Hints:
By secondary structure, chain A is an alpha+beta fold.
Amino acid sequence: MNDTLNRIPCGYLSLRDDNKISTINQTLLDILEYDHTALVGLSIDFILSNSSRIFFRIYFTPLILLNTKVNEMFLTFMSSSGEEIPVLLNAVRRETDGVIYHECVVFPILRQMEYENQINRSETSAKKARHELQLLQAELEHKQHSLSVLKAQVELYRNQMEELNVKSDKR
Amino acid sequence: MNQTILQRNNVKVSGKGTQYMIFAPGFGCSQAMWRMIAPAFEEDYRVVLFDYVGTGNSDLQAYSAERYNDLSGYVQDVLDICDAIDAHNAIFVGHSVGSMIGILASIREPKRFQNLILMGPSPCYENKLPDYYGGFSREDLAGLIELMEKNFVGWANYLASTVMQNPDRPALAAELEESFCSIQPEIARNFAVATFFADNRKDLSLVTIPALILQSKEDVIAPIEVGEYMQRTMPRSSYKLMNATGHCPHMSHPEETTQLIREYLGILILKDKS
Lengths: 171, 274
């Protein structure tokens, strides 16, 4: 691998046809906290979270074989210390010297994830607030209704009082 | 034939044979996933491809969360198709959850099927230790559902916006139709829950149809322990450990897959020698 690819500010990974790691650049090794020799020859499963392993197997193989490419697949990688690293992965299937490779770029999205999680949290609290508002509005409507009933009753009593007054005046 | 069902499930029938060979895709994918092996059987069979309602080019209007909230809705899809094409003694080929759907269909209407060919089947993905090893903890599977939501929301939005922004480019729309894994997030979620939280272990002993289990090596989704469990539990089942690796041998190793199916069905007619 040339030095540019090795040090480029995003992860690079090439897999053999059976998804075993063929090459991996230094940037990705640093992110994953592994040595080169520790990962080469291992299945990509080794650096995926359990959930991502299933997802990878369901979608990566059909997409790369039938479409020859994968775009913006969201996965969770695992570092050697067990830290979860959310990434976006793009891949192409390419033949070099008669050998098939799945060449992948891997882009960690820790900040993006934090942002999305914040949005999700905001959406959840907005939803909760909307729900509470709806409850309050329903309560308000209920009270307004009670109030209008009461007003109508008061009106009725007033009318009755007036009628009584008129009658008593006539007497 | 019942045209409504054929359109609903985007059923395609091809081939010269008289016996039906029905191919059932795995989770979330369309019939396109069979294109590397299905044509090899067109000489000897009537090949039937289809999409479950909610996937591929099926009729999305026919989807209801109620019907498809567990595998029985998908089983009913297969039985509806069998009824529409009047299938009897068909060969059923299923991948992944498609295998389980075929197993359940064969229990309900055995006369429809002669053989089941099951690629990477699993009756239960969740570990039920100490009795059963499915490969995954409940947390893993919940994480998978979350991962799918994150991926599908993006894909669905992308597909929708690309189609809307390019109404004058039918080729692009066609290409997007080819995106055989595209599925609405809500449908994907329901299908994933129906698939990955199912426990059909009790059904295996009820199967009366002879079955071939094709187990590939290093299949993370359906590990060897699961394939062996299925063979032990299903009466009249045979088990073949493939040289192929991964969960999709019909795509990654189509020659071996085709060869093993032919051998099992005894139609290795030795055409070269005749």
